[in-house]
């Protein structure tokens, strides 16, 4: 039986932590010190995330009373207050004061949408993910291309090479096509057709890597997910782009603003080697985020439709592939043990 909980119950722990404070972690101390020169110039950062103007030390308690008050207001007034109530008006005033182009009308115009998911058919299942502007197309394409390569042994050269090359090809097509839904140059479902997946897989050299046109960058986003025995899934990701997002903490609400606008391009092209600027900044344009719905990778019954073989087996194999591709060999071994398969040597 499905149950619901009051918003005040769901936000109670967050309110308590904001009021009473949290213990500063080692990484928070280190990252604050590392980026202090830049972050201290961001409006509101020093007041909210430093202690007496200094980098907080591990174990010290950091309190955020303004954020606690904001969460209490949401618990009482409802979440729509964030977009159309007093909280929205407060944030719009503060954002304008610090130079943001966001206005109250932008908050009011926001509306969640119900969309038709993208889908791709594999040998034993159909997988679904979200359309533009998310990276759902890339996630589905990686799995579909990789399946065509038929790499049999996890953690083998063929397995890792196949995942890496499938990811490169999916990302190249992503960068050329995924943007605001109203500006997508090629229908994303067409890119997931069996014919296109076959072409991409056939173009992978089993012995050589495709040159990558971008400088490698370190990754820093984590994802956590769980599914219970009744199929109820939780997919959790905390990502505000860079450790402290934009570094801007609004004075009235105490809300720290993200920095995902960095994914926009502000110019059409610098040189002919660049792909077309599909994520060009314009007002009200939704840009490609670095996020994708992760639950289809990890045993989400609502995201996978099995066709012939048992769903549990297929989904656990997905977990093996995802865990191994992420370098999480302990999770991969646990998934193989669940299948009754021996660990790879």
UniProtKB/TrEMBL annotation:
- Report the superkingdom from the record: Bacteria
What is the originating organism of this protein? Vreelandella sulfidaeris
Tell me what this protein is called.
Answer: Gamma-glutamyltranspeptidase
State which residue ranges cross the membrane.
Answer: none
Q: Per its UniProt record, what InterPro entries does this chain match?
A: GGT-like_enzyme (IPR052896), GGT_lsub (IPR043138), GGT_ssub_C (IPR043137), Ntn_hydrolases_N (IPR029055)
Q: Which PANTHER family match?
A: GAMMA-GLUTAMYLTRANSPEPTIDASE, GAMMA-GLUTAMYLTRANSPEPTIDASE (AFU_ORTHOLOGUE AFUA_4G13580)
User: Which Pfam families does the protein's record reference?
Assistant: G_glu_transpept
